[in-house]
Amino acid sequence: MRTKLLEIGYRLRNWFYGLFRSHRLEKELEIEIQHHLQSLREQFKREGMSPEAARKAALRGFGNVESLKEECRDSRGTRFVMEVWRNVRFGLRVLIKSKYFTIAVLLTLGLCIGINTAIFSVLNSVILRPLPFPESENLVEIYDAYPKMGLPWAGSNLTCYVDFKANTDTFSDLALIMGFSGNMGEAGSPERVNGLRVTWDYFRVLGVNPELGSFFNEGHGTPGQDNVIVLSYHFWKDTFAGDEAIVGQQTIIDGNTFTILGVAPRSLEAMYPEANLYHVWAWNPEDANPDLRHNQPAKLMGRLKTKDSLVQAKAQIDTLNQRDYDRGSVGMKNLLDRTGFSTLVVSLQDLRVRDIGAKLYMLYGAALFVLLIGCVNVSNLLLAQSNARTSEFAIRSALGAAPVTIG
Question: What pLDDT, in 10s, does the model give residues 334-377?
């Protein structure tokens, strides 16, 4: 093993030496060849030949000098790199010589590639890249829809949250989310903040861990125990300068005192980047009033046990809706029939791009078409450039250069 490693080391050393000391090696090769030729000439002179005859005999006996030089260069293993480097240098000289042609090609390709890169970056970040949460393909949003009334998305409510959590087995967790805003700080200099009121299991649905401190627990969802908040990552950095001692401190929001439990991770801002803080949603059992079933002020998010259980989850929710429909009054049944009521379960990733996905794909298709047009224009420029160099190619051919072939 050691011998093999030493052999590889010697080969690498010789390769680098041959690559970066090529001029010195060429000079040493020339000296060595001349030395051998001189030795042969002296030998033939001692045998009685004239100097001119000895020189010719030495060349015949030694062989083709240029062929031998090529064999020595090939033995170094750097011939391919050197040829590439010579071709690159020649190409750069040609481009510098035809500066207007070069500028036109660079601008055309730069513009086309730049447009495609920018649009693909947006497409990748919005559509192709998954949400930054564990098993994000299992995350769904559950919302009511009344399409015949012009409400394809109407949100959800606490009644649905309690009902679906108790009577379905396809979700590992459910969470309710609703936005709010308030004034943080003392009465003299408050700061307006945007927040999310979330049930205690919101962070568990997303499968994230706190950046600092802790998240809500089930006890915080009880009225009177909800005077706790979690700060968003950017709000913690911007307002509190990333102070790690912030956990356990108290702050005032709309005149009420809250204890800061922790800081949410940065990945959570992929969902609601404008949220400054999270306040736990506390509720009593009587708050989940069936009479408020079709009042939708919030969003309902869930995590499926498996990504293949989405259809089953929809079927279970449809069963619960049918139960409520059968129990409802005639007036409520007529209303639901007229509005085309249903509850939808949609992948969070699909929901995120539902309004812009097709537009982004069309935009990227247009950008690819622009790139195609740019490539055609560059090809035309190259053909025009090759026609302009016809006389140059003729001279090269007359000097013995191989003809240029395409394809």
Answer: 888 898 899 999 888 777 766 666 777 788 788 888 888 888 88
What is the pLDDT at residue 96? 82
Tokens, residue 57: 């005999």
CA distance 205 to 142: 13
Q: Tell me how far apart the alpha carbons of residues 335 and 294 are, in angstroms, rounded to a whole number.
A: 11
State percent of the chain over pLDDT 90. 27
pLDDT of 296 reads 78
What does the buried/exposed string (b/e) look like for 213-247 if buried means 16 or more CB atoms within 10 Å of the residue's CB? bebbeeebbeeeebebbbbbbebbeebbeeeeebb
Residue of 281, 291, 267 lying closest to 210 (CA atoms): 267
Q: Give the helix ranges, DSSP H, for 21-98.
A: 22-46, 51-62, 65-76, 79-97
The values of phi and psi at residue 35, to 5°, are -65, -45
HSE toward the beta carbon, residue 324, CA cutoff 13 A: 21
Output the DSSP codes for 163-224. Answer: HHHHH-SSEEEEEEEEEEEEEES-TTS-EEEEEEEE-TTHHHHHT---SEE----GGGGSTT
128, 218, 375 from 304: Cα distances, Å: 21, 20, 47
CB-based burial, 33-68: b 16+ in 10 Å, e otherwise: eeeebeebbeebbeeebeeeebbebbeeeeeeeeee
Tens digits of residue pLDDT in 168-194 = 999 999 999 999 999 988 766 788 899
| CA 117-123-126 angle, 5° bins | 135
pLDDT, mean of residues 249-259: 91
**3-class secondary structure, 120:** helix
Q: Are 250 and 259 in contact (CB under 8 A)?
A: yes
Query: CA-based diameter of the chain, in Å?
Result: 131
Reply yes or no on whether the pLDDT at 152 is more than 80.
yes
d(CA 137, CA 127): 13
Amino acid 407: pLDDT: 39
- pLDDT of 10 strictly over 80: no
For residue 225, the one-letter residue type is Q
